[in-house]
Amino acid sequence: MTPKFAPPDTRAIPVRIVTSAGFDTWLGTQDEVVRDWIQANGFDGGAGQILRLPAPDMSVARVLVGWGAAKDRARTRFLIAKAAEQLKSGTYTLDGDLTANELEEAALGWLLSAYSFTRYKGEAVDGAQLKAPKGIDASRLEAIAAGECLTRDLINTPASDMGPAELETAARNLAQAHGAAIHVTEGDDLLDANFPMIHAVGRASNRAPRLIDMNWGTEGPHVTLVGKGVCFDTGGLNLKPGASMGLMKKDMGGAATVLGLASMIMTTGTRLRLRVLIPAVENAVSGNAFRPGDILTARNGLTVEINNTDAEGRLVLADALALADEAPADLMICMATLTGAARVAVGPDLAPFYTDDDALAMALAQAGKRVRDPLWRMPLHRPYETMIEPGIADLDNAPSGGFAGSITAALFLDRFVKDTPRFAHFDIFGWNPTAAPARPKGGVGMAARAIFDALPKVLDT
């Protein structure tokens, strides 16, 4: 789906946004009939309240939406989207004393509130439409919403219909839409092309592993996005229990997120040279599955002892990162649904990230706060590198002990990036476990909007 604002000449019903603190003052400016109606219905500007004000012919003249107090807005992103979801139909325009950032958040949240995943059940329903508020870049917000919806669709699609080949098709469709070049290395050709760990992880499945390599743009700074595309993760021979396997269709959430981010970049015509690398595999079980105790040699020559076949994401990413590092970009971003340790640390809502670049970290954090796409910087704590050095090989893919699992995974990936000057790794969840305004339960993009917002500042420094 492609969320759009209503045409500018459409007749629209005003939506007045009222805070709790400003309610009494605002109410005093209304005529007596309106005041009586508001008070009779108990509206006081509380967060998420909605009240339709009738015209003399009983049609809807205006809609009031409660924006609550500052603490309510801090606790709930896209609060205005709650109104859009309740209004269900019609065309509206926003009215209220909002800052530029608040207005942009409200408008984007309204667009995203229209998202629903209907591939297997139901039909898409036209919801309440919004006229683009004055002062915002409507086409940019539409591009952001479209990229986010692409990410959600890809994650929500079950592995039966979203294997490595289907993920490749999604990338090819995106490339075709924007005139990007795409090259795919598949199956045993991965060995000839020196992607041994992507091949090792994916060879047990009858759905061939592959490396997707997409390039777009001819001018400007060079940006490489690398996304983990494990389309389903059984855990391999270290088989996951059933409860842990239930959500593993989302283990390609890193790939889905970088495709959504790439869509934002290309749709808006951002001046840069973009490369997207996705190692797409299914971690399956069969007689030729890679084994605990195996030692694999990565693309860059580092040897890796396999102490858990369920720590496969870092293996396929390692080959892709090593390839990217051979042609260093000005900025490289890695995104992966990599560790449960990250969820224990920060929960499902925050996107933890790792970088040694303080200026990059600050730009990302500021952008995340500005666009309400929350991030949290985690430490690349070098003393923990001894945990990923097993002695029998250069690296250990699953250090024993259970401590600092997200950090050691990030340190593992960092070994494959040596020549790229600016690098950040995101250990995302890619799933919203509880419905929230503009964010239904299911697949969700994390950090893409923040990265997109930060790019101009990052690439200018």
From TrEMBL:
| Molecular function as annotated in GO | manganese ion binding; metalloaminopeptidase activity
Q: Which organism is it from?
A: Jannaschia faecimaris
Q: Where is the signal peptide?
A: none
Organism phylogeny: Bacteria, Pseudomonadati, Pseudomonadota, Alphaproteobacteria, Rhodobacterales
Gene Ontology biological process terms, A to Z = proteolysis
What's the protein called, per UniProt?
Answer: Leucyl aminopeptidase
The record's listing under SUPFAM superfamilies reads: Macro domain-like (SSF52949), Zn-dependent exopeptidases (SSF53187)
Supply the PROSITE patterns for this chain.
CYTOSOL_AP
Pfam family, any one = Peptidase_M17
Hydrolase in keyword set = yes
| GO CC term, one of those recorded | cytoplasm
Domain (Cytosol aminopeptidase) spans 308-315
The alphabetical list of record keywords is: Aminopeptidase, Hydrolase, Manganese, Protease
Q: Write out the similarity annotation.
A: Belongs to the peptidase M17 family.
